[in-house]
Amino acid sequence: MTKNVRVRFAPSPTGPLHIGGVRTALFNYLFAKKYNGTFILRIEDTDQNRYVPGAEKYIIDALNWCNIPFDEGPGKNETFGPYRQSERKHLYKAYAEELIASGNAYYAFDTAESLDSHRKDHESQGKTFIYNWHNRLKLNNSLSLSEATVKSKLDAGDDYVIRFKSPQDEVLHLKDIIRGDIKIDTNILDDKVLFKSDGMPTYHLANIVDDHLMEISHVIRGEEWLPSLALHQQLYTAFGWEAPQFAHLPLILKPTGKGKLSKRDGDKLGFPVFPLQWQDPKTQDISRGYREDGYFADAMINFLAFLGWNPGTEQEIFSLDELIGAFDLSRVNKSGARFDPDKIKWFNHHYMQEQSNETLAEAFKAEQPALANIDINYIALAVGLIKERANFVSDLWNLSHYFFQAPITYDEKAAKKAFKEETPKLLSELVTTINSINDNDYSAEQLQSTIKGWITSNEIGFGKVMMPLRLALVGALQGPDVFDIMYLIGKTETIKRIETMMHQLQ
C-alpha cells in the first residue's frame, strides 16, 4: 500500500450495536492494523430524531470489550475532529452550495403533499415515481424556475432541499474490492436529497464530505450500502476529489440462511445479537449481550471473522494478531454468511479451555454465592477437573457442585442401577480400605492403587464398587475421575459421604 491506510467505522447512535456492526468494525480494524493504518470511529448522528441517549457510550464500550478499540475518534487523538456529525453540521451547507454552483445539484421546493400526489398519480398508471431527469423540469425546483423566482423563494425563507443532479444516458463504471466491476445505468438513479429543510445534511453528503476531510483511504461497510455506491462515486467526481476504495461486506444471515439476521431471530432462537447487554432508555426493556451471557471476547471475534471471510486454510482458531496477519479483503465472500449459534459456542468452549484454572475460579466464585467462603485455590483445583465439559463459566456449578456440597439426594435411576443387595457390605469394606491409607500418603494415585488392588484381590466386579462409590460422592453417575474427587474432598468427607448414602439407601 503506497497510500496511508485510514479506515472508519461510522455507526449511528440509534440503539445498541448489532453483531453485524461489530463484524464491520472488526474487518476495518483488521485491515487497518495489517497495513499499519488508522482505525477511526465517527458517530453519524445527523438524524437527531432517532438519536438514543447512551448509544454512543455503548458503541465505544462494545469496541473496547471486543479488544478492537479505535485509534482516532470522539475524545481520542482528535486530529481530524470533531467526530460527531452533529458537531460538523456547519461544514456541509457550503459543500452543498458548491455543488449547486458547479451545476451538480439544485434547490427543490416541492412540498411533501405535492410529491405524494405525483407518486399516487404514477401508481394509478402502473408506474413508479422517480425524481430524476425524466420529470425534474416539470417539478418545483431551481432547474425549472427562473433565477428571480428561486432568489425570491430563498429570500422569503421557503422550505427547500438540495438534490443531486444525476446525469442522463450515462453508464457508471464502479469498482468494489469484493464485488469487482459494477456498471450502473444513470437513467435508473433518482436525484437524492443531499441537504434537508431542517438545515442538516443527509447521510450521503455528510458521509462523503467527512470521508474526504478525514482522508479515508478505504470504505469498508455493509452490503446494504451498495445501492449508495453510484451516488457516492458521482459526488466524489462532482467535487473533483479522489475517491477512496470501496469494499461492501456480505450480509449476516439468519441461522436458516434466509434473510438478514435480526434481534427477533435472537429472541426467537435464544441467543444474543448484541455484544453487550442493552437497556432501552425509554421502555427499560433489556436485550441480552454476549458478554453477560458468558462469552469471551476472543471467541466472539474469532467467530465473527469467519462470517464472510476465510483464510484459505483449515485453521479455525486465530488470535487477534493472527487474524491481522491473515486478513485480506480479497478473501471476503460476496454471498451472505449464515449465523450459527452453535459455532460460536464451539469457539467459546475452546477459549474456555485456554483460560487458567485460577482465572476461571475467580470468575466462578464471583458469580456463585455458595463459594463465598471457599478457598480460591481449592476452587481452582475443582475447576481444573471439570472445565473441559464446560462452554461457559455459568456451567461450572452444575458440573462441580459436589466438590463443595455433599449430595442431599441421589439420582433415582442411578441408585437403582448402582445400589444392590450386596452394596452395603462392599461399601463397608471399602471404607475400611480407605481408612488403611496413611494420611500422608492420601493421593489420587494411592487411592487408585489401593482400591483397585482390593477389588482385584477379592475378585469383585469393578462396577459393583465404582458405581455406588461415584453415586455416594456425586449423587449421580457422572463427573471426573472418582479418585480425583476422593482426593480433592479429602478422606474424612469421602468416608462421610459413603456412610451417609449407605444409611439413606439401604
From TrEMBL:
- State the species of origin: Snuella sedimenti
Record SUPFAM superfamilies? An anticodon-binding domain of class I aminoacyl-tRNA synthetases (SSF48163), Nucleotidylyl transferase (SSF52374)
Gene Ontology MF terms in the entry: ATP binding; glutamate-tRNA ligase activity; tRNA binding; zinc ion binding
Q: Where is the Glutamyl/glutaminyl-tRNA synthetase class Ib catalytic domain?
A: 4-346
Source organism superkingdom: Bacteria
* Record's protein name: Glutamate--tRNA ligase
- Gene symbol? gltX
Q: Which GO terms describe its biological process?
A: glutamyl-tRNA aminoacylation
Report the residue ranges where the short sequence motif 'HIGH' region is annotated in this entry: 11-21
